[in-house]
TrEMBL record:
Molecular function per GO: ATP binding; DNA binding; exonuclease activity; helicase activity
Name of the featured protein: Uncharacterized protein
InterPro entries: ADDB_N (IPR049035), P-loop_NTPase (IPR027417), PDDEXK_AddAB-type (IPR038726)
PD-(D/E)XK endonuclease-like domain mapped to chain residues: 748-1080
Length: 1112
């Protein structure tokens, strides 16, 4: 007798079967109970409680796989010999089969290109598994492809060729495939009439594979009784109904019964036994039906809740808070009675972990994780990358080091990484000793050698020995020699000392997996030669096949699991998370070597390579049904409106369907409907939500604050937060602390200090006082271009007289620049170390085009009486400006002057300062008022004041000579001598000079404004746009400049480090600031502009021009 026990979810199908089993307990040896492997534990638990210990101990349930093993133990496996190939061995053989088939051009044509893509072997393995389950061998596959079109026939023939090779290698290595077990076991059961006189029970199955149907056919043929439970409310329902998958299974089994002439019986379980309220039963019965009764007849939805969350974090907060409320309200409810299920549980895992901790909820997250991210596997796969690469790559080297399995600590790793970042170490540079200057160069070279030498040695060994066993042995030896094996054990010991036994066991497990992989290749391939690239691909595929899950850490815990794979033990409360469109049910997409259209054509010709897409859709609907029908007491459904990346998401249709069924919009709650006190079920969660809502003065928020203030551990934290609320950030540094950070005896200021401080006090404080600096990177930027320019001017002008320089030809200048540039490169940039082709190109172009600047300088000196007198003039240690400030303190200002020119006019000596800048600098009332662009003025006054190097000289002015090489454009003809060529205005100087006509003509004879920022009008006086100043104005400018230095020193001593950047001419200094993320002013809520009174004072000084005084 073949009995079908049918009914929808919760109607007692399994309980009815338990009754049948109990009736047969006296003949336990004649019972055979089959359930899916993933449900066996829960099934046995329920059966134990139903039968009692005495009856249960006489029984045992099996999966189809376990039944096959039992049959082999009884009758042997005469058709096959050898051991079973595990997944690792199969992956090796798949790669061997693909390689062997590809070696014969006639064997593989259509799939040849795809075979070079990642994941090809995995796709082939899945197809072979599906064909074996479906009873399709290579000969059958070839036979059935004759009626296919050419393209699909070629692709299928390619697959058959690889399949043939797979079978051949399995036999050659003496392996048996467990995928053949059920089919072979069915033959053994049929031959030996194993099921004669037995009663067979099958529960929790929704569909069967082809080999399982073969076993079922033997059961039906010989067993006395077969009892099968099926989750369906109508076995005769048509297509596209909820239980289409199950009904199709029923029809296939009925066809077997009719074929064998067996009598059948139908037992329908029509009464609900699971749901404790009519609303849950109503949802289960009608939610996925095409028709439903009128909403007027719907029960009250007292035990159904729908929550619309802003995002996944808000959703997790709601779920965890609701769980705590349920536990507090029902003393009999346990955490194990609650389940959280989602079709996208992997995305929720980290969010839920944090929320569970906040709400003090014990949990079991049933999710399988890949081993690829673990330290052991990252180390090994990176090692394979390094060995397979032609050159060493810094990214790979540091990924391997940071796995923590080498004898290199974090300090050494950081030191090496900073050095490599600075000098751009990569590729072949790892093969040579480090030569670029560094304080820790000897230590760095030792670290490099410790890493690279063993890798080079291993690379050479692998080139000589290409056998699979040889490579495995060499890799294992390297793991031992480099300390990876030892350090893995050390890391495990540290974790055990920290009471992290599970983490230690996980590392041990990963190391065991790695050794198993090497052993499997060693034993399977042995002395066969193999290309290292293929060897690496095989290992990566094997690692990709390994997954692990964390076992439950406590008996009483909330289970969070995938809706498809969840093995729930009669939960009372179910939370369905992520009920979004495209996720609930999942959107079906077909991936692999064959498209959905290809699979349909193959299915029409009797080749079922995978489950048809229509069946997959029906299966997904069934997953949704099971999820909605799992709860016995209460059901919560939630969905976020955005994912973790902020992308918008929308509710699933099922949500609106449920609301429409009950015609009750109040079922859906949003974040705005939930008060903050709902989340305050633990102190941690209360504090978390108070911090977010503390600006809200509601009664609930005030109550939470009072609750937290009554707890000492939170009172201190809360008091600090309240004390800082609505307060402006205090950037004032105590004087005593400031004196420890900055030396004021005396306060030494460089040329950039005044400008940097005035642009932003906080930036100066971080840079000069705290000395917080980003890692330096040596590359051709504005700084290096400027240093190179200075070095060339110093080398060429400093070693020649004015007349010698102006008489140099273009070629002589070009050669001199090349010589100076090469010297600078070798001394300051470590020569060729760390230089790539791009650096070479830009550096050469820079030196070539620098000649244009020198031609301009030649022309300027030809029409000037001023003579270059000194270069790179150091005013820092001696001959610097010393000014009093504060209460008896002194400041010392100094720096390096690029070039000092002198000239004697009417028995008086004059000095002008030339500075080469990568950007144009202008002296305006605004810049003076703000203390910007004043470095050269300070140098000028420091040099000519009492005690200065040019004491007794009159300050003639300062000139900023722009050397923006990238901005220079030549006319249509090239400069070939000092008298030819024209340069654009981008080279013209800026600054300020004395407005005396004799001095102006000494700087540029005809004063046309080509080489100084002054141009004479038709009356022979400087025009209104000229940047000149009278002697009296120069004296006032000196005093004004010194006052800015003193003001800065006083402000610094007072501890002013306010993050209030100066906005000048629409430019904000924050754009490229290294400290913008720590100043608490990234949105520029606090900023400064030029003080109008100071601007007016500066304007009056700059307005004292020579020609105005003449008119007066």
């Amino acid at each position: 007798m073949i009995e079908f026990i049918t009914g929808p979810a919760g109607n007692g199908k399994t309980t009815c079967m338990f009754g049948r089993i109990k009736e047969c307990c006296s003949q336990a040896e004649k019972l055979c109970i089959l359930v899916p492997e993933q449900f066996s534990q829960d099934f046995d638990k329920k059966l134990y409680f139903y039968l009692g210990a005495e009856n249960f101990n006489e029984l045992f349930s099996l999966s189809f796989t376990a039944l096959a093993r039992q049959l082999f133990q009884l009758y042997g496996d005469p058709g096959r010999s050898g051991g079973f190939a595990d997944n690792m061995a199969k992956m090796i053989i798949i790669y061997q089969a693909v390689t062997s088939a590809l070696s014969r051009p006639e064997a593989v044509s259509s799939l040849r290109k795809q075979s070079r893509q990642n994941g090809f072997a995995e796709d082939i393995m899945k197809l072979i598994r599906d064909m074996k389950r479906g009873g399709i061998d290579p000969s059958v596959l070839l036979q059935k492809t004759q009626l296919l079109d050419k393209r699909l026939r070629e692709k299928t023939n390619d697959l058959a060729a690889i399949y043939v090779e797979y079978q051949r290698f399995m036999e050659e290595y003496g392996f048996k495939d467990e995928l053949d077990n059920i089919r072979e076991a069915a033959k053994a059961a049929n031959l030996n009439r194993y099921f004669c006189g037995k009663t067979v029970f099958l529960d929790e199955f929704e569909s069967f594979t082809a080999d399982q149907y073969e076993m079922i056919k033997v059961m039906i043929a010989y067993a006395e009784n077969v009892c099968i439970t099926l989750r369906t409310d109508d076995v005769n329902a048509g297509k596209y109904t909820l239980f289409e998958t199950v009904n199709d299974t029923y029809r296939k089994i009925m066809n077997i019964c009719h074929e064998l002439g067996k009598e059948t019986r139908m037992t329908v379980c029509g009464e609900n036994h699971r749901f404790r309220s009519p609303d849950l039963e109503y949802i289960s019965r009608y939610v996925l039906k095409n028709t439903a009764p009128a909403p007027q007849s719907a029960p009250c939805a007292c035990n159904v809740r729908i929550f619309e969350a802003r995002d996944m974090y808000s959703e997790a907060e709601y779920v965890c808070a609701a769980i705590k409320h349920l536990i507090y309200e029902d003393k009999e409810l346990k955490y194990r009675d609650i389940a959280i299920i989602s079709n996208d549980i992997a995305s929720y895992s980290d969010v839920l972990k944090a929320a569970f901790k906040r709400y003090d909820i014990p949990f079991f997250l049933s999710i399988e994780k890949s081993v690829g991210h673990t330290a052991v596997m990252v180390f090994f796969t990176t090692l394979l990358d390094i060995l397979g690469s032609r050159k060493f790559r810094s990214e790979q080297i540091f990924r391997m080091i940071k796995s923590g399995l080498l004898d290199i600590d974090l300090t050494e790793t950081s030191l090496l990484e900073n050095y490599c970042y600075k000098w751009g170490v990569d590729g072949d540079m790892w093969n040579e000793s480090f030569t670029a200057e560094d304080n820790e160069l000897e230590k760095l070279e030792k670290i490099r050698s410790c890493i690279i030498d063993p890798l080079l040695k291993l690379k050479r060994k692998i080139k000589r020995n290409k056998t699979a066993s040889g490579i495995c042995s060499m890799l294992y030896d390297h793991l031992a020699e480099c300390g990876a094996e030892r350090n893995t054990a050390v890391l495990m010991g540290k974790l055990i000392d920290e009471n992290k036994d599970y983490e230690a066991a996980e590392i041990k497990r990963m190391w065991g997996c790695l050794i198993d992989i090497l052993d499997s290749i060693y034993e399977t391939l042995g002395e066969k030669e193999i290309d290292f690239a293929e060897f690496s691909r095989i290992i990566r595929s094997m690692i990709g096949q390994i997954q692990y899950s964390v076992p439950p850490q406590t008996l009483d815990a909330v289970t969070a699991a995938s809706a498809r794979m969840a093995r729930l033990d009669s939960p009372k409360i179910v939370f369905i998370m992520g009920a979004n469109d495209g996720n609930f049910p999942n959107q079906i997409s077909v991936h692999g070597l064959f498209s959905d259209a290809d699979r349909s054509k193959l299915a029409e010709n009797g080749i079922e390579l995978s489950t048809p897409i229509a069946e997959l859709i029906a299966s997904e609907r069934l997953v949704v049904y099971k999820a909605l029908s799992a709860a016995s007491h209460r059901l919560f459904i939630s969905y976020p409106l955005s994912d973790l990346s902020g992308q918008a998401k929308y509710p699933a249709q099922i949500v609106d369907r449920i609301i429409g069924m009950f015609r009750d919009n109040s079922l859906r709650k949003t974040d705005e409907d939930i008060s903050v006190d709902f989340y305050s079920v633990t102190l941690h969660s209360a504090f978390y939500h108070y911090m977010q809502e503390r600006s809200n003065g509601s009664v609930e928020v005030v109550s939470i604050k009072k609750l937290l203030m009554d707890r000492p551990e939170y009172r201190r934290r809360l008091s600090y937060v309240i004390s800082r609320s609505n307060m402006k950030h205090d950037y004032h540094i105590d004087k005593d602390i400031m004196r420890k950070l900055q030396n004021f005896e005396p306060l030494r200021l460089s040329s950039t200090c005044l400008e940097e401080y005035n642009l932003c006090h906080f930036k100066y404080f971080c840079d000069k006082c705290l000395r917080l600096h980003v890692n330096e990177k040596v590359e051709l930027d504005a700084r290096i271009a400027g240093e190179l320019t200075h070095r060339c001017f110093f080398g060429i002008l400093g070693s020649r007289s004015k007349s010698e320089f102006v008489n140099m030809s273009y070629e002589e200048v070009k050669d001199a620049i090349g010589s100076c540039a090469e010297e600078y490169r070798n001394t300051a940039l470590a020569g060729d170390f760390g230089k790539d082709a791009r650096f070479e190109l830009i550096f050469n172009k820079l030196t070539e085009r620098m000649s244009e600047v020198f031609m301009y300088t030649q022309q300027a000196l030809m029409v000037s009486d001023f003579v270059p007198h000194d270069f790179e003039l150091d005013l820092r240690e001696s001959h610097n400006v010393v000014l009093p400030f504060g209460s008896g303190e002194q400041l010392s200002f100094g720096g390096i002057v690029d070039r000092a020119d002198i000239c004697r006019i009417d028995d008086r000596d004059y000095l002008r300062i030339i500075d080469y800048k990568s950007s144009r600098k202008n002296i305006t009332p605004e810049t003076l008022a703000c203390g910007i662009n004043m470095q050269m003025l300070l140098y000028l006054f420091a040099s000519t004041d009492k005690g200065g190097l040019y004491e007794g000289y009159e300050p003639a002015g300062v000139l900023y000579s722009p050397v923006r090489i990238s901005d220079i454009r030549l006319d249509s003809y090239k400069i070939v001598s000092k008298n030819s060529g024209a340069l654009t205005s981008s080279l013209r100087t800026s600054g300020i000079v004395l407005g005396d006509i004799d001095i102006l003509k000494a700087m540029e004879r005809d004063v046309r404004g080509e080489f100084i920022p002054v141009k004479l009008d038709k009356n022979g006086a400087p025009d209104k746009n000229s940047d000149c100043i009278s002697s009296e104005g120069m004296t006032l400018l000196r005093n004004y400049s010194y006052s800015k230095l003193i003001a800065m020193a006083d402000s610094l001593l007072d501890g002013d480090a306010e993050a209030s950047p100066l906005v000048l001419e629409g430019k904000v200094p924050c754009t490229y600031c290294d400290y913008i993320n720590i100043c608490d002013n990234s949105e520029l809520t606090n900023q400064r502009t030029a003080d109008m009174d100071a601007v007016a004072e500066a304007a009056s000084i700059l307005g004292m021009k020579y020609y105005q005084e003449k008119e007066e």
